[in-house]
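Handout for the seminar on molecular recognition.
Each group receives one record of this type.
Step one: identify the two inputs.
Step two: read the structure output and locate the region that could contact magnesium ion.
Step three: write two sentences on what you found, then compare them with the reference statements printed after the record.
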Amino acid sequence: MTPTEFSSLSLPADVLANLDALGYKAMTPVQAGSLPAVLAGQDVKAKAKTGSGKTAAFGIGLLQRLDPRRYQTQVLVLCPTRELADQVSKALRSLARPLANVKILTLCGGTPMGPQLASLEHPPHIVVGTPGRLLKLCRKGSLKLDQVRALVLDEADRMLDMGFLDDITALIAFTPDQRQTLLFSATYPEEILDISRKVQRDPVEITVESVH
Ligand code: ADP
Ligand code: MG
């Protein structure tokens, strides 16, 4: 049986204390399945629904692996909508509380580019956003993805439903080949399996049927 205590992971005491303070008493199934692999730097291909705790399933592990002393974008999280991107950023900020100065920036379409371009003059450690706008910022040269160590495709099936496949593919081409890629999707139609084959390396596969 997979242990469900956060203390079964090798996490610093202040990180465990923060999880406790957030009311996270035990790992959800997608967290128990993903976190050991995320912490070990492996790729993950997880089938999990809304509300299963996906943000912490990648967030706790990726926050642990990033280097806050390097002011470069090390983690890129792609989401289908602004609303979901805002939720992910908010959750990551709560999880990042015990870490020193982790800068997380949300970049989505439907808002003026000017302030986004200005905010990128000081690169954040983590970028969360929607594929179309991120690709535009990347093509302008203001979003730099050459130091990305981990890429997350969150709610991948919804991103494809929204027609983001080409933008996602183009964005991934800006990231290094040597990166960790985490794929989360509620469903696995052929297009998602195809993306996984193209952008992942020996992913650890996790299927979660129940929500908690
Ligand atoms: P998903 O992205 O799969 O829809 P979220 O990551 O947004 O799910 O998490 C859903 C809710 O569950 C959030 O309110 C989050 O704070 C809470 N949550 C996540 N993990 C845990 C946990 N281990 N214990 C308690 N609550 C949790
Ligand atoms: Mg989510």
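Reference statements: The radius of gyration is 16 Å. Residues 23-24, 27-28, 31, 50-56, 87, 91 surround adenosine-5'-diphosphate (ligand 1) (CB under 6 Å).
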